Automatic annotation (TrEMBL), chains A, B:
This is Haloacid dehalogenase-like hydrolase. It comes from Bythopirellula goksoeyrii. The keyword Signal applies. SUPFAM superfamilies: HAD-like (SSF56784). It comes from the Bacteria. Residues 1-23 form the signal peptide. GO terms for molecular function: hydrolase activity. The keyword Protein biosynthesis does not apply. Keywords: Hydrolase, Signal. It holds the Pfam family HAD.
Amino acid sequence: MNTILYTGSLLSIFLASHFTIQAQDPLPSWNDGPAKQAILKFVETTTTQGSPDFVPPEDRIATFDNDGTLWVEQPLYTQLTFALDRVKALAPEHPEWKEEQPYKAIIDGDLKELIAGGKHALAAIIATTHAGMTSSDFEKITTDWITTAKHPRFHQLYTDCVYVPQLELLTYLREKGFKTFIVSGGGIEFMRPWTQRVYGIAPPQVVGSSIVTEFQMKDGMPVLMRLPKLNFVDDKAGKPVGIGQHIGQRPILAFGNSSGDKEMLQYATGGDGARLGLLVYHNDPEREYAYGPAGGLPDSKIGTFPQDLMDEAKQNGWIVVGMKNDWKRIFSFDE
Amino acid sequence: MNTILYTGSLLSIFLASHFTIQAQDPLPSWNDGPAKQAILKFVETTTTQGSPDFVPPEDRIATFDNDGTLWVEQPLYTQLTFALDRVKALAPEHPEWKEEQPYKAIIDGDLKELIAGGKHALAAIIATTHAGMTSSDFEKITTDWITTAKHPRFHQLYTDCVYVPQLELLTYLREKGFKTFIVSGGGIEFMRPWTQRVYGIAPPQVVGSSIVTEFQMKDGMPVLMRLPKLNFVDDKAGKPVGIGQHIGQRPILAFGNSSGDKEMLQYATGGDGARLGLLVYHNDPEREYAYGPAGGLPDSKIGTFPQDLMDEAKQNGWIVVGMKNDWKRIFSFDE
């Protein structure tokens, strides 16, 4: 009898602490508005046994764009900044680049010309400057750069220029049994060396653009050699394709921030049952940046959020998360 | 005091049951020979804190071939049998197939001619017969077939023709913090609908060959359409490439059974620290099949294990797991 009482008491302590944890706000850096409420409601309805929208854990797939969704993408995609450094380092071996775009623009520091080339030109630069080495050597180069290079405005490591509300959301989703994936136009091998540490997302759960790799024996050691040839562009209609290839399941939640994410959100929210599409809207020039051109914000070739995306969001019930109004805090280094 | 005593007693019960579990043989269907000992030793040395070969959980990646490694591949690859059924069903719409290989061979039931075409011809058939539908429709077709079709010799569902010793090994590895992946020459979308149920391996952890898919809006619904065009052959030197793409980490354990797995084993065992390469050797005609041609066994175009693979195994210290001698039990339906 004593034993039963004691067990009961242990159980109460356990349950009490359990419910205390549950009662804590899982998204403290989100303001209490419609976006936060929509997220909480969606997670509640898909993870509560007996709910008509209940989704079994194995189907709780959430995909996140990276640039502009999880970390800063202005004034330039971080990987592009990395690529610029690589081009400058490799330029002496490529005198022809002085006359050849987009290399000329990089060497001349003409960012406007460079950005005008669009994402495909960027992908080409990345393929060119990221190839001719093993995957393992590329990982070392990336790691060296990402642990030292700093953002020009915030003067912090790029991996510290990540959005705290999104880190909270990733953690919250995983605690609720979701598998979280990155689905980015960025290079898959550029992200993998640090996504576990920064986002808690392991390399196999990173989907991105890639160049062709080839299995080779180099000095008697088996390696993957990176060739200067584009393999896959994980952007726009490529995002659902990348999701099909790497995940093989239709996400029930997708979070993006630009026209490059439209098809991913269409695909995720186009299935049966409860679905949630979200878009970060960068409308906070004080704490971060403001660009659209939706809502009359300045146009941007990087992470463009045009009016038709805003219209599509309204039509499909996607949640537009305004940085200025929905996020209490943006960076960990903010006051 | 009572409380402390009671807590101590609870703890003893917990520890006792814990150690009972630990003491149980994790691989009861493996005979106690060098292969089983090598596996147990490898897992012990890589997962024990303080061991010089300790590997942190995030780097415990194990890759398994599927056909002939996890399930039966004779007398034909299971997916090929599935493809034959599809070709026969689609043949009335393709009169030209009566004169065109490899379709003619299928329609005529000439398996020898078909097998002579090799894996690339098979991949072509698969691409042709598996395309022109959405990924979701293909999943339904696959699921219908795999839950009803039976193996011609064992008269059991193909998903029951899986090797019990390997199921034990997959479970054991996962209990020890490994992530288990399939890396197969088979079609990625053919495997994903059932690998979670049969092997405990979720769709994102399946790597395989694929055809091109395209994002489309079909009747207003966003779908992935399967096109009749080969995307990737995940075989031989393609296996390390597929691992690089999907996993982004070098495995520390790889298990195959044929010359198609050689490069995967080279890649996995070519890294630093403790590594384990394993090959199933089908030398048990009574309980399963016997084919080589290594060791003088009959040659086979399906899952060929040539003498040079045996030599390479010896040279690299890969463990050759003889079905006849190393496996106490093969199928769950065995006595």
